[in-house]
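hey can u run this one w/ glycyl-adenosine-5'-phosphate bound, need the structure tokens asap thx
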Amino acid sequence: MEQIVALCKRRGFIFQSSEIYGGLNGFWDYGPLGAELKRNVRNAWYNDMVTNHDEFSVPTGAPQAFSMVGIESSLIMHPQVWKCSGHFDLFIDMMVDCRECKSRFRADHVKSSECPLKPSKHPGEFEKCKLTEPREFNLMFKTTIGAMAGEEGTAYLRPETAQGMFVNFKNVLDSTRVKVPFGIAQVGKSFRNEITPRNFTFRSREFEQMEMEFFCHPSESRAWYQYWRDRRYNWYINLGISKENLQLRDHAADELSHYSCGTADVEYAYPFLDAGEYGELEGIAHRGDFDLRSHMEGKLVKSGNELVVEKDAEGNPRHRGSGKDLTFFDDQTRERYIPHVIEPAAGADRGTLAFLCEAYHEDEQPDEKGEMQKRVMMRLHPKLAPIKVAVLPLIKKEGMPEAALKIYRELKEAGIASYYDQQAAIGRRYRRQDEIGTPICITVDGDTAKDGTVTLRDRDTLAQVRMPASKIVDEVTKVLRR
Ligand code: GAP
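ok here u go:
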């Protein structure tokens, strides 16, 4: 993990936020290559979910064809949203403070944390530690709207993007021609005031989510749950995560969130974990009608096997819903019902981190003198690689830079992220590209001027093939479609 973190800083994937001021715990910046990588992760997700989704195809094992649409909702929403969603009351972690060193720990992380005064011990085990009893801590970031002081002006930075889809359910139904079953997807920032952010970007206070709420008939919800659970697992496999490092784990009943009647996590064997351990990459939850009903009727709580509106001492809803009709009327069957929801909720940062970890690879390759040298290579899927092609003139004369620049410009015009490099020996230039995951290097040499051909080098196999320069754009496009 240390090597991956070092590479991320050295090559401009990920930096600590506000680093020149000592950094800010739980916040990260993506550098030039990291921003491209993360954008490719987001695009791969959005293309799969929305842009390239064919709504006329009937998925195997699930009941019907379906539409998928995207939205972008605001980061700050009406405070009542978080009261009805349950976040206001339930989005809490138990924390303990140390009165001696003034540090704060998640109660369930104390045994895996270091005492800041005596790092060889856990908090509470050093003689000077003065830990408080565990106390509740709401993870939502508070802010104030306008000039209003006090509770009236209090608002929250969204802790998930999901609520944007629920509160816009009626808007989407009324403004488009979608019919149940359909999905609303969104990519955007979320904020959680994590007590102990850690493990690089894995647990951050500001992060990006890629969430989709799929609205379906209650009787078909189990089949859709199964469909999305499997489809989301395969998305990671198709983008290069190996089956040995990925698992789909069903939650036990006591692990389920307050709204969920079934959840499975896609989990990855991050290198900061012990052997055999996995960390959450994405959750796929069967949320029933919890969210739409809560936003209609008021915050729900479980009463036996039922969800009922929570009441205060006077018998009024503890948190009032919108009172708006969030049912769906099926004009074929003449049935009116509240759709059930299946939610695949992924993290763009955790995904990016998993792709980086999976890609990191070391081997030995001969240098120009034939001596074996350590090589660091990022085996990123071509769709995710920040730079797809590096164009390299063998030497800086004899018309090679001009020929290479022509190819570079053709690639750029075709919308292919490319890089031109004429500095240093060719072996060093290859290694610079291997280290950032560039799948293809194109070398222009003495023969290019004679017969118009160039060498195309494959990052993973190191195979080199000669081909006409005029075919490069087509060939690269083929590789990127794989
Ligand atoms: N709407 C449901 C929901 O938000 P979640 O499991 O709390 O579910 C979904 O979050 C995904 O968001 C997680 O699987 C993870 O990838 C990402 N995520 C959650 N908290 C995070 C954090 N503190 N830092 C980075 N990513 C986080």
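Residues 142 and 156 are 5 Å apart (CA to CA). anyway lmk if its weird
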